[in-house]
Structure formats: structure tokens, C-alpha cells
Amino acid sequence: MSVSLPAAALSVTTPEGPAGVLARDRQGYVFTCSAGASAAVGVSLTMPVRLRPYERAGLHPVFQMNLPEGFLLERLRHRLAKATAADPLLLLSVLGGENAVGRLRVAMPLAPSSTGMGPQQTETLSSLLAHRGAEGLFDRLVDRYLLRSGLSGVQPKVLVPTLIETPAADRSGESVSPASKASVLTRDLIVKSGLGEFPGLAINEFICMTMAARAGIEVPEFHLSDDRRLFVMQRFDRRGDGQLIGFEDMAVLAGRDASDKYKGSYEMVARLVQAFCAAQHRVESLRRLFDIVALSCLVGNGDAHLKNFGVLYDGVSDEMAGSVRLAPAFDIVNTTCYLPEDSLALELAGGRSLFASRQSLLDFAPACLLTPRQARARIVRLIEAAHDVMFEFDELAAEVPGFRSTLQRRLELFGQTFRAPAAGSGRS
């Protein structure tokens, strides 16, 4: 696929209807809401419908959210003309269609909402998990589904449509044609690989995410392939029937460019949760935020940046205002087994030291409406869950160079700092 003409303007729609036009001029980027648009078609929690255009030197953060980074961007440079791959509006015109993250759909005016890929094929979860030779499989998936994968983050990943399997569904390991699947529902899965740069990354993420689930933190459905080279996670911005769910990461809510995702603090994230989450979800969202940050400190995750936290919501109208809540935890890995001197992605109590994060978590607790006693109880629960998971997957953890020993040291440090809460303190 090649694109020769620069995209000057894109139409933006939401499930509630046309939202407006995103354009570029000599000063930067301009988003203009559709004439007479209702509040329900607002494109972001930070960009309600108004008469005055939203002007910005760089692309608005809510649109940046669907631009690829790292591995995917490099692959797009090879697939598309280099000029195209460097043009944000053209990238959005390719990646911002039916498969974009969240509830926005972006396309060239009068153009069909298609990536030009032709009839869509699908995979099956069972074939993805059972396939031998995952590196070859991952390359094939990237080649086939690259132009529908508007995923941020530098880790190698691709968005793969999969058939929701029934007893009669194809389990041969081959992709399924549109004709053979008829009207059977499909879902999207995010397939990740560490490739050669980060050996054992799929196992790493599987174990860390299992710790989160075991501790009671909400997580998407996830799997590890049989050959332990692929981590597969269900996208969580869709309902079971395919209905779109709004998603915005914390970089969007903070008005930050994606390149500034390492700027800020976890206290700032807590303030954003306070500001944007609905009253009925606010306390639970803040406490879950504390758990995710604490688990990242516990496992040595130095990549919990602004784009790895977000909120979900059903819509932006006043009637939907009560739906905004913290999104499930995702992208939790131990980075210190690859980067021994790694630090926290954001500031915590004024510092970024993973070693000092044990005490910093107690200083962070009030931002999440927790007392020190409640925070200790929650951290103890995380430690217990992590110990259980490490015991259960000890042999699997040993397959990742440096992973098991790094996790064991961190668990010992946290265990020395946090003892079981006194009787009657509870685990609020």
C-alpha cells in the first residue's frame, strides 16, 4: 500500500454520530466539532463539544493514542512509503478505522471505513496458543494484520481478529475465511512477543499479570502460548457483542503528548482519577490504582508510565457521566531482569528509585484515599499473591534469564518491610 498525497483533513465519528473534522494547517492541528453536534458526540473527556475549534501545535493527545510506536512504527515504515509513516494524519487514516482503540473512528472524508486489506481473515485462540514456532507465527500475524493494529507502546505486538470458538469452529490451526465463518462473532486479541531483544518476555508478563489477578486486581483475559513465546490478551475496550467502550489513557487526560509519557508522577495519576472517574467508581478506582502501582514496585516494573493507565467509559454525555472508571491493569512486567538499574517510570513521593519505593508507597497511600494501615494490608495481600504465583510457576519462571532471582530478591525486601497487619485491621 502506498499513499502519495498528504492527508489535509479527516472525518471523526463516534458511536453516537459524526463528531467533527480533524485538519492540519500551517500552525498545527485543528479539530472542529460538527455543526449542531450534541454533547454525546464529544471526542474526549477533555474535549467536550463546543463552537470554538480545538487548536494545537501538535496532534491532539486523544488522536495520538492510536498512533503506533516502536516495533509497529518501524514495520509500517517498511510497509508504507517513509513519508506516509511519518505523517500522523495519514497514519490515522490507515489505523484509525474500525479497529482503533476506544470509541473514535477516523477516516478520509467520503472514504469507506476500511484499511484496504480486502476481506478480513480471522485466527482462532486455540491455534494461536498451540502453534509451534511462535517467532514464525508472530511474523506472519504482523504481516497479515499490521494495517489494523493502531497500538501504542514499543513492545512487539499486533491486533489479531479471532473467531469466538464453538464446538463446530475450525481448530485446524489455519486462518478462517469470511465465507466459512458466516455470521459467527469475532473478537480482537493483542498478541505480544519479546522476540530476541527481551528473552522470556511472554512468560514474564504472564506471571506478573497472574499475580495481579490472584491479588484481586481487575485484568483482561490473558493466555500464554504452549511454546511460551507469545502473550495473548483480550482487548478490553469492546463488549462481548462488539459494542465500543470509550478508553483514554492518562497521557490524554493530562493533555500530554505520547512522547511525554514518562513525565509526571503517580500522585498526578491519582489526581486524574479523582478528577475524571465518576463519584460511584472513584474510591474503588483509586484503591485499584494503588494496588497496580504497588504491584509494579513489588515486581520491579520500570515501565508503568502514563499510557499504561487509563479509564473506560460508556459515553461523554451527562447521562453517561457516571460510567467513568479505572481501566483494568495491563502491561505489568518485571523490567529489572533486563535492565538491572531500571527505575520507576514516573515519580513516586518525589523519587523514582525502585529500591526506595517500599516506603514511598506509604507516602502515596493518602492520594488514593488509604490510611497507612490500609495500605500495608493491601501490600501484604500483594506479597502473598506474588509468593503463591512464584511457587506455582517456579519452573516456568526459571526459563527467563534473571527473572526468578530478581523477583525473589524483591519479595524478600518487601517482606522485610511489610509484616502482616495487626489483628482486626482488616484488608480494606
TrEMBL record:
Family: Belongs to the HipA Ser/Thr kinase family.
Domain HipA-like C-terminal per the UniProt entry, residue ranges: 150-388
InterPro entries for this protein: HipA-like_C (IPR012893), HipA_N1 (IPR017508), HipA_Ser/Thr_kinase (IPR052028)
Higher taxonomy: Bacteria, Pseudomonadati, Pseudomonadota, Betaproteobacteria, Burkholderiales
Organism: Sphaerotilus hippei
Molecular functions (GO terms): protein serine/threonine kinase activity
GO-annotated cellular components: cytosol
Protein's recorded name: Serine/threonine-protein kinase HipA
Domain HipA N-terminal subdomain, residue spans: 10-106
Keywords linked to the UniProt accession: Kinase, Transferase
